Every structure is written in structure tokens, then in C-alpha cells.
Amino acid sequence: MLHSYIEERKQVIKLLHSLGLSPLPVAPRQDPFKYPKKDSKGNIQYQKDGVTPVPLFTGKNPSYLDANGIPHLVNHSKYQNTLPTESELQLWFCNPLTGIGTLGNDSIVWIDLDSNKFANQNDCDRAYEELLENNPILNSAWLEKTQSGGYRIGVTLATKKDFTNFKLSANGDHVGEALGSGRFTVLAPTIGSSGKSYENINRPRLLPQIASLESIGIFSIVSKPVVIPAVITPIKFDIPVSSEYINLLECVTKENKATLEGKNNDSEDRSALFNKAAKDLLGWANWLNAHNLNYSQNPQDIIRQAGSNLGFHDKRINYILKSINIENCQPAAKFAGGEKACIRKINKLLGYETKEERQKIFDDLNWKNWLNNRVFKAVKKIHQEQFEFPDDMPKHNAIIAVKSGLGTGKTEAMLKIIKETLLGSLIIGYRNNLLFQTISRGGEKFI
Q1: What number of other Cβ atoms are within 10 A of residue 83's Cβ?
Q2: CA dihedral in degrees (165, 127, 302, 222; nearest 10)?
Q3: Of 155, 182, 196, 240, which has the fewest CB atoms closer than 10 Å, so is most exposed?
């Protein structure tokens, strides 16, 4: 048992290092009477009973046991952007009882579902299962069950989060925390203060990326203020609009329209696209209502039909709709260009455009045509379960681009080519973590 525990701990250290995350130790919870927490003046801090000291070593804070079993704290803030040295790792993990954890950062977040925030364990289990069911991309995330029955989900974010405490619906209760920069999270195979181990469910070499926490149904417990103008200035059109019915689908962006028409059902993140499109559509319904303009369709009907076209069952559609604060939705056009952009859109739909607007459309078309003429298209298509470069690939004076799905072996194929050339290679990228991982994989398997 002890041997397998130490081996698993080594694997976690190695994987965290390859992800650019600092492996940090966590000592088992210690007797608070022997190791009490003290304030800045050296006074012992006590729990609510006034007798029991607050523990200095909680079993959840960065710390380690030395070879003699003496606990020591670790100042984890210095390892937010700097990986620990080999000598530090040897010191921290010399005692087999020391557990392991790490920090989040601005792009990597640990979604922590706290079982104590739910009415019972079944409710916590169900919330976790629904998160994965409604967001299939999370099945490839770092997944763990905590020693107290909660769950931890490790992902990368395309946009930086702006909250920590979260709920799972617009009107829900606080059920967990999104642990980012500066926040420590304990990982398997650590043995918790309850005597139970943290259990790993999935430990990937790469963490999947999601658009935002909101895109998977995780929301801040603090409602964000919405600024509503006291007086709405009437829009003046050059043609009467009282009898005109506006097509809601024509109001949303092209991408959102395609989603609502079921044309993005092969996307890896359909939930995020569906959520974004629904908010744009509901935002236009709110905007048109506020300006006393008529539209011809029920937005809820459009959204439900769109969800069905994307392959979502009714339960999932209801879950997504429930997570949206409909009253606060605004058109995507308003976020991009303000009130004037919305007015221009409606004027265009009603058949009115100024000379300047027509010229802008013409200029935009010319620009798009220019771009389209400079698009590289595939000259060779191959169908393989795991990608490999073809034998007739040019060996000199060529730039070769590969487009293939996530997890289809592009990186491994590239590393094989590098090994075969015996010339070395410069790997260029825009994400340091991915570059570190690629170099690490090359060192392990090929180079």
C-alpha cells in the first residue's frame, strides 16, 4: 500500500510539473494543542468553544513532515509563478505520510464542489454528474473525489474568471469555489483528516479548455449589477414600424444564428455556443420590447427547437435556460457597438440604410473578398484514427500545416518526425504550458 501511494505521488508530481504547476506538499492534520495557530502578536487563536485552539496544520494547507515527522509550513505564494527545485521536492516529500496539492492560476482553475454545501451526499453526487452530462468536455478534465465526498474538476479557462464562490444556477445557493491564482487545492492520493483518501477519477496529460465558468453552468453567487437607463430614447425610423414584425433570428450574430439553426452540432463545446446564442436572442427580445417594436417569434420556442436540433434532451435545455438570467440579457450587438449598433441592425432589417452605411457594407465585402483569396486550403486529406505524416510529404522547402481534432496524435506525429531527422527543432507556440508539455513528452518517448 505504502509503495503504491509513493509511486502515485511521484506520478502526480511529474504531471503537475509538465503542466507548469507547482507540486506542493500537505502535511496530515496535527494536534491543535501541540501546534496551535497564533495571531500576529503570538496569541493562540481558539475555536468557537473557546477551549480548542485553531490548528496550525489543518491537513489542507501547504506544509510537510520532515524525516523525523516534525511538521513545517510552506510559503506557497513564492511558487505561484516559480516551480520548486529538485532539492525542495526531495525535502518536502521525504516523509511518505506527506500528501500533495497545487495552486490554481489565471488560466488553470480547480472547480471545487463542497459536499457540506448540499443537503446530502446524493445531491452533491447528482450535481457533479449533471455538470459532466451537460458539458461532455469535462469528462476529459482532471477529476477527483475529495476525502469529504466533494468533487474537484481541473480545467483551463479561455477568459480569466472574476469570482470564486459559485452556484449552479442563476437562483441557486452557494455550493463551491473556483480555485484560481493563490488558492491551494489538495489532490489524490493524499489521505485527508477524516482518514479517507482523495480519489482520482481522471488525470489527463492536458487539461481541456472551456470558454468561461458561465459557459458550463457555474455562476458567481454575487449578482452583477445591471445598469438600466431611467429614460429610453425612442428610435426614429424613416418608415413606419408599428405594423412591421421583425424576425428575431435575423437580429443575432451570424455565428449565433447558425447555432440556433442547428448548424454547429458537430462542435466540441455545443453547450457554450448554445448558451451564448440563447443570451443573444433573449437580449434582442428584451431590447425590442423596451423600444415597443414587434417581433414574430417566441424566443423560448426558438431556443427549445435549437436545443433539440443540437441533440440536447429537454432536461438539459431546461437546465441551461434555468441558468440564464433572462431579464439581464442584452444583444451581442450592444456589447460590441452600443445602442447605435442595435439601431443600425434594425434599420437594415426594416429596409433602411444610409448612403454611408451602404458604402461601409461595400467596403466590408471587398475586404472579405480580399481575405478569402488569401486562405490556405488543404491539398491532401487523409482519414486515420491516429494521425501520421504521409510518406510522400515534402522533405525540403515546405511549410506544412495540419488540421485535425483534439487527441488525434498530431503532437506525437510531430515528435516522431523530429526524432527521425536527427537535426533538432525549434518549437514555436503562444502557450508556455503546452510548449513545456510537448518538450517533456519528447524527452520521455522520443528524443
Answers
A1: 15
A2: -10
A3: 240
